[in-house]
Every structure is written in structure tokens, then in C-alpha cells.
Design brief:
- This protein has 405 residues and is of the alpha/beta class.
- The protein has two domains: 2-147, ATPase, nucleotide binding domain (Nucleotidyltransferase, domain 5, 2-Layer Sandwich), CATH 3.30.420; 197-384, Nucleotidyltransferase, domain 5 (2-Layer Sandwich).
- The chain is built from 15 helices and 14 strands.
- α10 (284-292) crosses α11.
- The longest helix has 25 residues, at 296-320.
């Protein structure tokens, strides 16, 4: 099956076009600056050079039209007729408590996504625009929604409830939702496959470390806890997000600095984290270089970053009553041997022993712990788009099989 995977933002659309039988991306690209006369589409067919197209792309519908046109291009395309697009899978950020898995998009599903806008006001509206635009351009092609939050929806109440009046949860659905669910699900399943053990027997901690960071406790294939909460602000220190902190701190700062709610939100989400502590950068590569040069503020930022990951490993091992594997993924998790080394240092008491040679030179999906490490440590590149494509294929095939003969 050939599946177009879309990730629609307010002014951009990322896409990949998959052959799910071969599990390869035939093409990938991105439309940026939607709504401007100088919008840009970058497109890379499998095994070919990247091309760049500049034009006037005023809305998401025109952006999808451009994407389809470049997929059909005689010189740069990978299909000859748009009928070859069998299905479209959409990344949708927030499914609230409504969705515990991926679903075929219907009017009812669209209404539910709209109802969750207040939980993700920056993300769900452009996701909806992408779905509507696709419906205009490919009216008879089935569409599937794959939710960032779905993997975490079945967490137990002890993990998702906050210590606030229960009526506020019932009234406003204030709870831990968690994000990066597609990534956590993918790498935990890949870890089980690499270890050649059924995921139903494993207790796995997954660490998705990028500009946004989150961890999940995956017990027998199910997320039982995760670090991000009601929003992606909670949990680990991130590129520009504060992560865990005493709620009174922001109230104190708002009073001292005279900040509005909007300004406080910007402070916590855009000017905190690595960039806030270091004063240098939100990019871990630059932080690490500054650390090696003796920059104390960068060292503080690095230490806080890895210390929080280490703390959550201990917490989640306790929550699950054991631990079989720790998985590092995401831009930092996959590429920073310094972060992995610091997180795993002095963790032998928990059964974690890193092989430093393997840690410094991992290739693709790899076990980087020593042979005698009771807990296996893995480095697994994530592939959320492939998960979306495969979920889309599965749901569309099930729909076709259920049609009356």
C-alpha cells in the first residue's frame, strides 16, 4: 500500500510517502511559510537529490496540491497518477481521553478532534486544516488520525491524576496526557524485537531526547507513566522548556517581574531549559562544546539535563517493580554519547553497565550496554512517520475487509 503521511503545522506541512509493503519512504519533504508569496517546498525522492521550489502557497489546500504535484512530477516524482495514493495518515497531537489508538477519520472523529482544541490550541487547529485540505485534494482517499497522546491514554489514575480538586479534572479534563507517544511505542517495540523477547514480558524505559524531551515507563507493552503532563512543559529539562518546577516559582516571578499569563507562558516554554540555564544555546551539541571549553553555566545546564533523566530511570524502575531495558532515541538520545554516558554512570546498582566503546560508536539500532549488564541499554533511531504509515495501512485494510461482499 502507498501511504502519504502528513504532519501539518500552522505555516508548514511535513510529508513522507511510504510503500508500506517495503517499509521505505519513496519521498519526503516539507512545505514552509504557508500563507506567504515566498513559500518553499523541499522534496527528496528516494535515492535522488533534494529539490527546492519557491512559490505562492496561500493556504494548506494549495500546499497539499503542491505536494501531490511534486509526487507526480515526471522528473522528481515517484508515482504517475494520484490514484496511486491509497491512504493518508495524519499526525494529530491531542486526542484527549477520547482516543486510545489510531482511527479512520469520520465526521464524528473530526468533531472530537475539534473538542480537544482547547487542550492543544497551537497544534490541533493546523492538524484539522491539513485533514480538510487533504479531503479537498483527495476526496475519495481514506484518511487516518494517529494521535501523539494515544499511547499514554490507558495510564492508571495514580499516574495521570494531579493533586488538585477532583472536580477540576472532571470539569476541565486536567490530567497527565503525555506526548511523543508514537515514538515511545515504536522504540519500545523495536527494543523487544532486538532483544528477541516478547514485549509482554518486558519492563522498558524509553527516553525520547530532542529539543522536546520525554520519558515513558512501558510495562508489558503499555505506557504506565510518562514525564510530560497536561502540556509538553512538564518533566525533563528541554531545549527551551523548564520541565519540572515548584508551581509557586512562576507565581513569584510573575509578581516580581509583572508578567502577564501570556508572558509567563513564553518564559517557561521559549526562554527556559538549556537556553535559559546556559545562556548559550538550546542545542545540546553547542552545550557540550561549551562544557568541554570549561563554561560553568553550560556545565550546570548539562548536569541538570542528565540528572533529571537519571532520576526518572530510578523512579520508573520502582514504579514498574523492575527493569529490563533503557532505550535512548530522538536527536540527542541517538547522537550524544556524552549524555548517554552521564545518565548511565554509577547505575550498576540498578543493573545498568554501559560499554563505552559501543556507546561511542553505535550503528543504527544497537545494544550499547556491556555483555554482563543485567539491564540492556539500547540506542534506537525513532521513526514516527513509519508508525503512522503502518497504522494507516492496518486501519484501511480492516475497513476494506469489513465491506459487504
Amino acid at each position: 500500500m502507498k501511504v502519504l503521511v502528513l504532519n501539518s503545522g500552522s505555516s508548514s506541512i511535513k510529508y513522507q510517502f511510504f510503500d508500506t509493503d517495503e517499509k521505505i519512504a519513496l519521498a519526503k519533504g516539507m512545505v514552509e511559510r504557508i500563507g506567504m508569496s515566498s513559500a518553499v517546498l523541499t522534496h527528496t525522492p528516494h535515492g535522488k537529490e533534494k529539490i527546492r521550489i519557491v512559490g505562492e502557497i496561500l493556504d494548506h489546500s494549495i500546499a497539499i496540491e503542491y505536494v501531490i504535484a511534486v509526487l507526480l512530477s515526471p522528473n522528481h516524482g515517484v508515482i504517475k497518477d494520484k490514484k496511486e495514493i491509497d491512504a493518508v495518515g495524519h499526525r494529530v497531537v491531542h486526542g484527549g481521553e477520547t482516543f486510545s489508538g489510531s482511527v479512520l477519520i469520520t465526521d464524528q472523529v473530526m468533531n472530537a478532534i475539534k473538542e480537544n482544541i482547547e487542550l492543544a490550541p497551537l497544534h490541533n487547529p493546523p492538524n484539522i486544516k491539513g485533514i480538510n485540505a487533504t479531503k479537498e485534494q483527495l476526496p475519495n482517499v481514506p484518511q487516518v488520525a494517529v494521535f501523539d497522546t494515544a499511547f499514554h491514554v490507558q495510564m492508571p489514575p495514580k499516574a495521570f491524576l494531579y493533586g488538585i480538586p477532583y472536580e477540576l479534572y472532571r470539569k476541565y479534563k486536567i490530567r497527565r496526557y503525555g506526548f511523543h507517544g508514537t515514538s515511545h511505542r515504536y522504540v519500545s517495540e523495536r527494543a523487544a524485537a532486538l532483544l528477541n523477547r516478547p514485549i509482554e514480558e518486558l519492563k522498558i524505559i524509553t527516553a525520547h531526547l530532542g529539543n522536546g524531551c520525554s520519558m515513558a515507563a512501558v510495562d508489558c507493552g503499555k505506557s504506565v507513566d510518562t514525564t510530560m503532563g497536561f502540556t509538553p512543559l512538564e518533566g525533563l529539562l528541554m531545549g527551551t522548556r523548564s520541565g519540572d518546577m515548584d508551581p509557586s516559582v512562576i507565581l513569584y516571578i510573575m509578581g516580581k517581574e509583572g508578567l502577564s499569563i501570556s508572558e509567563a507562558n513564553t518564559l517557561l516554554n521559549k526562554h527556559s531549559g538549556l537556553i535559559g540555564l546556559s545562556g548559550e544555546s538550546s542545542d545540546m551539541r553547542e552545550i557540550e562544546n561549551a562544557v568541554l571549553e570549561g563554561n560553568k553555566k553550560a556545565k550546570n545546564a548539562f548536569d541538570v539535563f542528565t540528572y533529571r533523566i537519571k532520576k526518572y530511570i530510578g523512579a520508573y524502575a520502582a514504579a514498574m517493580g523492575g527493569l529490563d531495558a533503557v532505550v535512548f532515541t530522538g536527536g540527542i538520545g541517538e547522537n550524544s554519547d556524552m549524555v548517554r554516558r552521564d545518565v548511565c554512570a554509577n547505575m550498576e546498582f540498578l543493573g545498568i553497565k554501559l560499554d563505552e566503546n559501543l556507546n561511542q560508536n553505535p550503528k543504527g539500532e544497537a545494544v550499547i550496554s556491556s555483555e554482563d549488564s543485567e539491564v540492556k541499554v539500547l540506542r534506537i533511531p525513532t521513526n514516527e512517520e513509519l508508525v503512522i504509515a503502518l497504522d494507516t495501512e492496518k486501519i484501511v485494510r480492516e475497513q476494506l475487509n469489513n465491506l459487504p461482499s
